[in-house]
Amino acid sequence: MSTYMPKAGDIQRKWYVIDAAGKPLGRVAAQAAALLRGKQKTTFAPHVDCGDHVIIVNCRDAVLTGKKLEKKIWYHPTLYIGHMRKEKYSVLMKENPCRAMELAVKGMVPDSTIGRSALNRLHLCEGAEHAHAAQKPQTWEL
Q: Which among 6, 33, 76, 96 is least buried, having the fewest CB atoms inside 10 angstroms?
């Protein structure tokens, strides 16, 4: 029995919609990262980018469990010496909830060319409407 090796031309990409309303941010991000990598497919290979497109709607309604909303902090450098910005997730979720979801998914995909191309297939929406209805996306339940 030989091992199946998928080629880039053989990949069939589907579109999925995940509704984040009332669900924990990390669980939605973990499920989106697995779909972006294509780990649910029987033809998955770690060296080939075989993931699907993922649309996450209702990012502003995702919840952080426990006291993460007050205690969790996002640090990001300004590239000047000694300049490190920090922002609490309570502010980040209020002002830019799509950025918080993007950071969570980005931390769950590999830091390689495959992970970067997977993040290009991630589409985030604050509300319930998205602009990808022509692709006929399927809903993905957590």
A: 76
- For residue 33, with 0-12 CB atoms within 10 Å meaning exposed, 13-18 middle and 19 or more buried, which class applies? buried
Stretch (H or E) spanning 68: helix 68-71
Question: Domain 15-139: which topology?
Answer: Ribosomal Protein L13p; Chain: A; (3.90.1180)
Interatomic CA distance for residues 19 and 117, integer angstroms: 23
pLDDT tens for 15-60 read 999 999 999 999 999 999 999 999 999 989 999 999 999 999 999 9
State how far the alpha carbon of 79 is from the alpha carbons of 87, 89, 91, in Å.
16, 22, 22
Report CA-CA distances (Å) from 90 to 64, 69, 80: 9, 5, 26
The full set of domain ranges for the chain reads 15-139
Closest C-alpha to 15, from 132, 125, 95: 132
Q: Closest Cα partner for 56 from 89, 90, 87, 33?
A: 33
